[in-house]
Amino acid sequence: MNSAATAHIERRLEGPAEGRGEPPIGPADITNVGDDTYRLMARGHHDVHAFMKAVRAAGYSWPLGMPRHVWLRAGPVRNGFHPIHGDCDFVYVDAEPRSRGAFAATYVDEAYGADGYETLTSQGSTAPDAAGSA
Hints:
By secondary structure, the chain is α+β, with helices and mostly antiparallel strands. It has helices at 3-14, 48-57, 117-122, and strands spanning 31-32, 39-43, 68-76, 81-82, 86-87, 90-94, 103-109.
């Protein structure tokens, strides 16, 4: 791999994209990864408020919690069927940071009432740590 490609990969692993002068997150960056549960993600560790703004701009009005920064890996599914997730080619699983195949992601699950993003932010919670995750 050439040095320019290596530098690009290293920049993607460093942390929040907005702080490095990369394009901000937008609605097209949001991926729905839930089955019968509301779960959304975007590759990269984004500012949680920019992420939620993109989520809402993408048309997702579901009740969601505080986004958190995670590391994931796409795990293969044999024969295109997973016993829990049904028909699919892969599932996302938790991964150790920077381990083989792992990528940084900003992730949010459904949440209601006091655990909802809008409620938490109105009470002053501003960071993924406030949701119990780093």
